[in-house]
Amino acid sequence: MTTDIKHLHYFLEVAVRKSFTKAAHHLYVTQPTISKMVRDIEDELGMVLLDRTGKEIELTDAGKIVFEQAQQIVQSFAHLSDELSDLTHAKRGKLTVGLPPMIGIHFFPSILSRFRKDFPGISLHIAEYGAKRVADCITEGLLEVGVTVGKINEEYFNSFVFFDDCLRLVVNTSSPLANRNQVALADLYNEHFILFPEDFALRGMIINCCNKAGYQPNIVFESSQWEFIVKMVSEGFGIAFLPERIIQKMEKKTESIVTLPIVETELNWRLSMIWKKNHYLSYAARTWVSETRAALNGVN
What region holds the HTH lysR-type domain (predicted)? Predict the structure, then answer.
């Protein structure tokens, strides 16, 4: 075979981003270049790997098989390079950290700045993904480390918790709920829910708890921005759930909202740094884990 690592890497980018244009932009190459790379693989294998007929690129059955194998090959090659780099004690490397946008802006600006200053040989990048997607990307080997929310599957991840806060219900002052001392999810089955998008772990936690309470929540609006969510509640658009520490700051600035404790104690905003279990971590990733563990110690 004439297909090399670069061919496979380009194919993976197209498959993950479901677009030749987006993949080319991310890789800083022209679209014809990346299209030719993928076509070379298809010609060599004698099979169509990507369905190009829809709005988004989709993997064919053959493409799914090649995608799984290509991931393993590219990851193995990257790990080989990392281990050889470690051997030279060069203290260099590349690292992309998965950070949910809302978490990144509140906890990591100073940490990122100090890390770049203390370790100039490490090329550090941030992938702003929802917590669920961060965990999925680490499982699939697309990221080495990242931050996620909620309970950690210890079978798949190593981790350390750096923040734990309860969720509070946010309602408009005109709501009948506003005069309560606390609320249970079972009381909210007729309410309009404002939730985070699908790749946010908190969304899944809230929906699961509602399901346990016997109903499917009526989701009327989605946003990844805390301020926007609070504004929509203040306009009487629906109810929302936000971490106590975050909403305390916003509640003082917004007169038309009230926050209430929730009976269900499993609804919390537990933040953890995670990385794949029984998996080689590059020098850059090990340094990030060590430095952030020290920096975030006692952040509560």
Answer: 3-60
